[in-house]
Amino acid sequence: MKDKSLAYWIIKFRYLGILLPLSLCISSLFFIRHIKVATQHQDFIPIKHPFIEVQRRLNRYFGGLNRVNIAIVVKKGSILKPEVLRAVRGMAEDIQLLDEVNPRRVYSIFAHQVKYIKIHKDGFSVQRLIDKIPATPQEISSLKQKIIHNPLVYGPLISKDFKATLIQADFYENISSPKIYKEIKGIVKRYKTSDFNVYLNGEPILEGYIDGQLSFILYVFAAALLVILSLLFMAFKKKRAFLLPLLAGGISVMLSLAGVELFHYTLNPFTVLIPFLIFILAVSHSIQFVERYFEEAQMQTDKTQVALNTLTSLLSPIRASLFTDFLGFASLILIPIPAIHSIAVLGSIGVLSIWASVVIFLPSVFAIIPLPVLSKNNSGFNLPFKVLGFFSYLWQSPKRIYFVLTVFVSLFIIAIYGMLHITVGEIEPGTSVLYHDAPYNVAARKINNYFSGSNPYYVLVSTDHPEGLVNAKVMTEMDALEKYLCHHLKEAGYSLSIADYIKLMNLAVQHRFMIPQNDRTIGEYLFLYESNAFPGELNGLMTPDHRYANIRVDLKDCRSSTIKRAIYFTKEWLKKFHHFKGLKFAYAGGPIGILGATNDIIKSGLFSNMMVLCVLIFIRICLALKSLSGGAFLFIPLAFSIALTFGSFGIFNVPFTIATLPVAAMGTGLGIDYSIYLASRIKEEREKGIGLFEAVNKAVFTCGKAVLFTGSILTIGVWSWMFSNLKLQAKLGGTLGGLLLFNMLAALIVLPIFILLLNPKFLRERV
Question: Confidence class of residue 123 from pLDDT cuts 50, 70 and 90?
Fold first, then answer.
């Protein structure tokens, strides 16, 4: 009764139902004009995690750790050629002059903090490694010897084969990555010659590159839209069949984008996909209305009654469907990552807008436009009926039913096995955001090949009071932890801490590369080095008051296994060998720590998110069908498709990353729609007194046709993301599209078979 009353009021005030959504759509233009599309590093960092707190402290004590790596690799000969060295110096100096960079954190063979310790009869002096560009063979040979005898340069900044050199620059955290990317590319272009290649790596480079590639997805969306409209036209042969869903989808997108600006979010590589998802979701729900509208138009001559019947029959299932869609997006708010939060907000607003664009707007339009002229003998596009006929064929004999059930159970068991072998985090060097042959990943491999890693792992060192670092036990423990990590981590390359500078000084004075065991000696070394250093030169390694320091270990990749081992061996060393009470170590900082925190959030967030979501959806379906068994029945195809999708992750060794994290929630919320619509239509037919088999068949060939189109359009639309030049978007599109497809097939094949076998009570009861 409530559904009929609500439908009656919507149709009664149909002109308001048209003007209100259109007015909101036009008003949203005011907000949309301010929307920004940008890739921001902080959007992908977990909000609350101990590793992130360590990173914040590192930023507070040592400035930005937003690192860019620039590798210069000669094509022939040695890097120590005057013309190449001049280009390297020019790049390093221009980078140091940028407002966005921390000038004390630019490392190259020309940096002030890169020293050469010269021994003479009166003692020793600390000098810059390169004062001027060597011009003669003798000067080049002398420079080469200085480099070979300096372990902080030979390997870390100059490759062992003298084919490459490295410039490292740390930028402030609040600087936009696209700006950094543009500045670095401009400097490289200024000095680039045919003698060498330049490879860029680092988080700002990655984000800047991604930002420049985002516009490509718009072409993908346009192509997918043409395919969707073509399918609609072939299916219904009526202009209104694709114009009205197109208009409904457009209204929903406009309203959801207005919500982005209203809540002060920005579009990023994740959220830029959501407006398109909302569009095809609105189109999909519209298809259910258009299909039922055409069906009612064949039986009625009063357009108002046709609109009323259409809305009345679909109001209950679409209310439940939109609620589950809303839950799918809204549940993502539980995951403490800003980029995921923006998906939750944008998607939730988009789903709510579908109520206005589909539930109110479409029936109101149906009530004022002339009824379509339809031929009862015209089946239109026959392919859907052939597909549905094949599905119907599967349950017309016990043998075929049991064959389908055998396949179902077998696939489910295989899927469970796959789910037990899911890997969280990266499994390959580089980043899974981009394809293997993307310039960024090529650069990462080159830098790792020539040098000792491009993924910094930081450990924060703190003492109880100022000058606490001027202590032999402190320096010895710092050095021990650094060596322990380098020894046990095969992925570890270059490492650096203030302890290395102390050992370098001791090598020059005592000819032993080790920490002296006298506090006074360490104090003298620090004083001598700092008095010969550029002001603030060591601020990247320790604070001026000698209270805080850091240990950096560069790793060759950021795979999940590498991150786990780095953290494990840090814990192990602290447990076994850390004894000095005046010293504290905090981990894990840097990109490795951030990725480690993200992996932890994915592990914990996925399970909790799915549990909360499934419980809420189950309760909502039970309330909609007024049946506990009805909720359980509709979960059968959903559980099957979820297991099949995520089982394939483990079977095909696809890692679970931040790119695929939203798939579970969105796929669960969106995928249950098919079963809701189909079960509601079967129940409606049963209430008319039709037998179970006939009710299932009729529901499949009427509502099922719309489900087939809905699932196909959603899948095609989402799978179009796989043509993106960003692997992150392609991976999200591939997995989400697969889940939606499995949900559709499960609803059209598995659900009818279980209903026919068990004849559930909720389909026999009148509500």
Answer: low
Which ranges in 451-540 belong to alpha helices (H)?
A: 472-488, 498-510, 519-531
In this predicted model, what pLDDT tens digit does every residue of 238-294 receive, in sequence order?
788 778 888 998 899 888 888 777 777 777 777 777 888 888 888 888 888 988 888
Helices 751-758 and 692-701 cross at an angle (nearest 10°) of 170
The residue type found at 726 is L
Strand pairing report for 455-463 and 548-555: antiparallel
Q: In degrees to the nearest 10, what's the CA dihedral of 622, 623, 627, 629?
A: 0
Dump the DSSP string for 549-589.
EEEEEEES---HHHHHHHHHHHHHHHHHH---TTEEEEEEE
Arithmetic mean of pLDDT over the chain:
83
Token pair of 509 as six digits:
């004075």
Contact between 370 and 303 under an 8 Å Cβ cutoff? The reply is: yes
Q: Select from 662, 663, 696 the least CA-distant residue to 681.
A: 696
Query: So what's the pLDDT on residue 534?
Result: 67
- What residues contact residue 406 under an 8 Å CB cut-off, 6+ apart? none
- Comparing CA positions, the residue from 497, 478, 481 lying closest to residue 489 is 481
Please give the Cα distance from 481 to 459 (Å, whole number).
10
Which token pair is 405? 């059930």
Order of strands, sheet of 583-589, starting from the edge strand that comes earlier in the sequence: 492-496, 548-555, 455-463, 583-589
Comparing 82 with 48, which gets the higher pLDDT? 82
CA distance linking residue 685 with residue 323, whole number of Å: 24
Long-range pairs for 692-696: beta carbons < 8 A, 24 or more residues apart: 692/755, 692/756, 692/759, 692/763, 693/756, 695/763, 696/395, 696/752, 696/755, 696/756
